[in-house]
Amino acid sequence: MKKEYVFTLLDETITWGLTEICTRCRVDSDLVYEMINEGILDPEGSSVETWRFNAVAIKRIQVACRLKNDLRVNLPGVALALDLLEELEELRSRTTQLS
Amino acid sequence: MDYKDYYKTLHIAKEASQEEIKRAYRKLARKYHPDINKDASAEARFKEINEAHDVLKDKEKRKDYDSFGGNWQTGQEFRPPPDWRDSFKGDGNGSRRASNPHYSEFFESLFGGNPGHFTSENFSSVGQDGGRGHDLNAKISISLEDSYHGAKRTITLNRIVNDGTGIQTLKPQSLHITIPKGIMEGQQIRLEGQGEAEFVMGPSGNLFLEIVFEPHPIFTVNKRDIFLTLAVTPWEAALGATIAVPTLGGNVDLKLPANSQTGKKLRMKGRGLSSKNQVGNQFVTLTIHAPAAHTTEQRELYERMAEIMPYNPRSGWEVEK
Description:
CATH topology of the largest domain in chain B: Helix Hairpins
Shape of chain A: globular
CATH architecture of chain A: Orthogonal Bundle
CATH architecture of the largest domain in chain B: Orthogonal Bundle
Largest sheet of chain B: 4 strands, mixed
Number of domains of chain A: 1
Oligomer: heterodimer
Strand content of chain A: under 5%
Largest interface: A-B, 32 and 39 residues
Radius of gyration of chain B: 29 Å
Strand content of chain B: 25-35%
CATH topology of chain A: Multidrug-efflux Transporter Regulator, Chain: A, Domain 2
Number of strands of chain B: 12
């Protein structure tokens, strides 16, 4: 018999508050604050209580943690790397469409 | 078992200093980190680089490794000497821990399983806390058709399982995955409790599967939108036509307006990667292909066209001819 798993598609319809995103990504809120200050994360909402993080934020936190741990990059470096990677992805996508 | 030349892996000389090893490792790790390098082989290369670094950065391990001599080549059939574990330090106790898929057979035969924490095959892991197992991240490749229609996939992963007594074993495990309709590249599916088991029978972590699209022979994709270049004849473009255009859901008739030009973009609403809540479209870009004039009759036809409808597509340029 096939086993069923509880699975969730992390799409644009789901958002999380600060506590939830820390639990989901298993990081401290201090790290999330630092990521917001570095521009790695940009939650919707004007105050800590109303902040909402989307699925993109989860992925950015995961990638940021891996880059930090594996390559010993500090957070400003991670922010720069993520911006450049996004730009690279956009350029790759455009090149594919043109070819 | 194949010999691995760790010096070659890091592109360094056998006499390299610890500083040189560190520098070479960092440079290659940046280049092949799977979050940075999207090449399918990057992850395997990243593991090789880490394995080479784990041996060469450790003076004892490096000394043991060097003791085999310098005449071995990568890929050459290799067996460690029978007294290897008695003569050399290796992992200290000579016991076989569970095989660690992050290391090669070559590494394990010399140094045993990783004495520290290790993770299941094809995964990177993040964060262990409060007695819960690590979360695991992996990628799953699907076709655009799988996303368009939704799909079910079974994947088999070699995973590390704890038996509750602290002994870890590697077991293949099949997971039946539902791919939701309209899923986009880069999106993640979270499978609760399917991450790494906690060491002393605590709750397992979660498994995050990131979607990667396989290349498609005719379509390209950007987020939810599908792109197709459609070749048309000059008469279809000039007179207008109804053309059967491939979409991920099968052929759909597209009405081409008269006097269309190369580069014209037409939208086929809802023919992209639509989910429950979001609509994706297909965009068709025209390219006019003119048939070659081989016969006298065909050449005359082109000459007649030139007479009847003189047209210079370079009229905006300074040099017009």
